[in-house]
Amino acid sequence: MFCFQCEQTAGGKGCTGKAGVCGKQDTTANLQDELTGSLIGLARFVSKSAPTETTDRLMMEGLFTTITNVNFNDETLRQQIAELHQDEKVDMNTIWTADEDIRSLKSLILFGIRGMAAYAYHAYVLGYTDKDVNSFFYKAMNAIGEDSYGMDELLPLVLETGEVNLKCMALLDQANTATYGTPTPVTVPLTVEKGPFIVISGHDLHDLKQLLEQTEGKGINIYTHGEMLPAHGYPELKKYPHLKGNFGTAWQNQQKEFIDIPAPVLFTTNCLMPVKDSYRDRVFTTAVVSYPEMVHIDDNKDFTPVIEKALALGGYPEDTEFTGINGGKTVTTGFAHGTVLSVADKVVEAVKSGDIKHFFLVGGCDGAKPGRNYYTDFVKQTPDDSIILTLACGKYRFNDLDLGEIGGLPRIMDMGQCNDAYSAIKVAVALAEAFDCGVNDLPLTLVLSWYEQKAVCILLTLLHLGIRNILLGPTLPAFVSPNVLHYLVDNYALTPISTPEEDLKRILS
Q1: Distance separating alpha carbons of residues 63 and 84, to the nearest angstrom
Q2: N or C: which end of the chain has fewer CB within 10 A?
Q3: pLDDT, tens digit, for every residue of 202-260?
Q4: HSE-up of residue 33 (Cα within 13 Å, Cβ side)
C-alpha cells in the first residue's frame, strides 16, 4: 500500500507495508485506490456520454468512501467497484510514483474533492444538488488521470477546487438551514442522564433527525459526539426534548471513551477508528461508513437494531457527569453566520471602541499526533480583548474553557462543523465590508489544524479567496512537495505553526 492523505501518515512521508497508521489494512487501502481508479474511468465515460443522477451519486459516494476513517470494509469497497462497471481503470500507482510536483498538485485536487464530495453528499440526501459542483468532480478526476498535464494545467485546477468547494459549502449551508432552521447559540451539557441512550457521531444531520423521530416517546435519550455537536443549535433538531447533550470529546479519544459505555454508538460519517473488542457489539454504521462485522443500517434508515440495543443495555443507573478536556462541564455551539451577523453592529462597535482588538479563527481537524496541545495553549494565551471563532472537531481542545465575554459576546464562538467554514468566511467578508477594507486587512488571523481531506478542500477555498498569512499545523502535509510549498509561501504567506508564544508575539506586534 501507499497512502499519505492524512496528517498522521507514517514518518511524515507515507504509510506503506501491511497497514496504515489509521489502522487501515493494505488490502483496504489498495481497494480504495482501485475504487479511485474506477472513478477516473467513470469520469472518462461521462465525458463521452452525459452525467446522470446515478453517475453523480456513484461519484460522490466513491470519493466520500475514500476519506480517512470512513470505510474499513473490503467487501463494501468491492461492491462499490463492481457497481461502477468500469473496464477502463487508472492504476493509481502511476500517480503515486509520478514527478513529485505533479503528484503533489494531483493529490491536492484529489484530496480536496474527496472532502468536497462529503459536503455534496450531505446536501444531496436533503434534496439539494448543484450542477457545477457535480460537473467539477468529473473534470477534476479526468485531470488526475491525464498523463500530459503539467504544472500550468494543474495549478489553476487546484485553486478551482477551492472555488467550487465554496459553492458546495454554500449549498450545504442552504440545505441545512432550509431544513432545520438557522442555528442559534445554545449551552450543551456533558452530563449523561440515567437510563437508555444512544450516541450519534459524524456529520449527517439527516440521520440524526430520523433517529430522533424513531426514538421519540421510547424513553431513550440521544447524545451527540464529535462533529455532531453543532446539531444542538438547529431549531428543528433541538425541539426534541430527548436530544439531551454531548458525549465525549474529539474523535481520536473514542477508543478510550467508548470502552465501558452502556449504550450503542451510531456512526453516520467519519471519523471511525478501528473498533476495540470491548465495545464491538455496540457500534453501528450507516451511509458510506462501513467496518467489518459491524451492523450496518441501510438506506431505508430503520434504526430498530440501534434502538433495541439501547434498551437492552439500559444506560447508566444514575446521572453520570463527564467533562471536556479542560474540565469544563458544558460547551456552547450555534454561532453560525446567521447569529453572528445578526449582532454585527455590536461587533463593529466593539472593534471601533477598542473593546475587541483581534479575531482568531482557531479550528479544523483534531488528531492524536503529539503537538496538538499547541491549540489549547494558543487559545489560553490570547489576550482578553480578542474573540476566538472556532469550528470542526479541533475545538474540543479548548471549547470547554470559560474565557469570559466582551460586550455580552462570549470570547469563544463555535460556528459549527468543518463545512461551517462557510460561516466564518461570510462573517469575515461582512466585517471587511463594514470597515471598507479587504479581508487580509482585518485584525483577523486564521490558525488551522488539519488531519484529513475536508481540511484540504477548506484550505484550498481560503487560498482561492486570496486569504494570506494562514498558520497551519501541527505539521505540513506530506503530499505537498517543496516546490509547491514554496509557491504557497510566496503567494499566500502560508506558514507552519511554531509555538503559541512566538506566533502570538508576531501576530500582535
Answers
A1: 13
A2: C
A3: 999 999 999 999 999 999 999 999 999 999 999 999 999 999 999 999 999 999 999 99
A4: 20
